[in-house]
Amino acid sequence: MSNVHTLKDIDDKGAVGSLLDKQIPSGQRLGSIRKLELEKALRGSIKTASDIANDYKNLQDVCLKQKKDLVLVQANANKKISQQNATNTRLRSSERLSHTERKIRYKFGSTPK
User: Fold this and answer.
1) What is the number of other CB atoms lying within 10 angstroms of the CB of residue 12?
2) Domain of 21?
3) Fewest CB within 10 angstroms: 41, 65, 74, 113, which?
4) Per-residue pLDDT for the chain (113 aa), expressed as one digit of tens each?
5) 49 lies in a domain?
6) Which residue in 23, 48, 75, 79 sits closest to 67, CA to CA?
7) In the chain, how many domains are there?
């Protein structure tokens, strides 16, 4: 990382570089650069963690909505199944009644009106 320079640093190397060398020892410059890099990385990871938390919240909202939708679909399906079962029960009852009526008519020789 010590080889990273801006164009201004390169242009002013003679004037600024020598001033920096006198004011800040080389080890401290590297430490300062490293500190800035670490701070930048920390800010990036905090932003990433925040983004992950936001994405997680959004996914929870989506899952909750889908769960509610699924409950409604299941309730509608159960209602239709119950209606079909009731219809089937009525039809079977009607069929049994018709069958019984035919037996009685056949047994007593009456014809349907």
Assistant:
1) 14
2) 7-108
3) 113
4) 455 555 555 455 544 444 445 555 555 666 788 888 888 888 888 888 889 999 999 999 999 999 999 999 999 999 999 999 999 999 998 888 888 888 887 777 765 55
5) yes
6) 75
7) 1
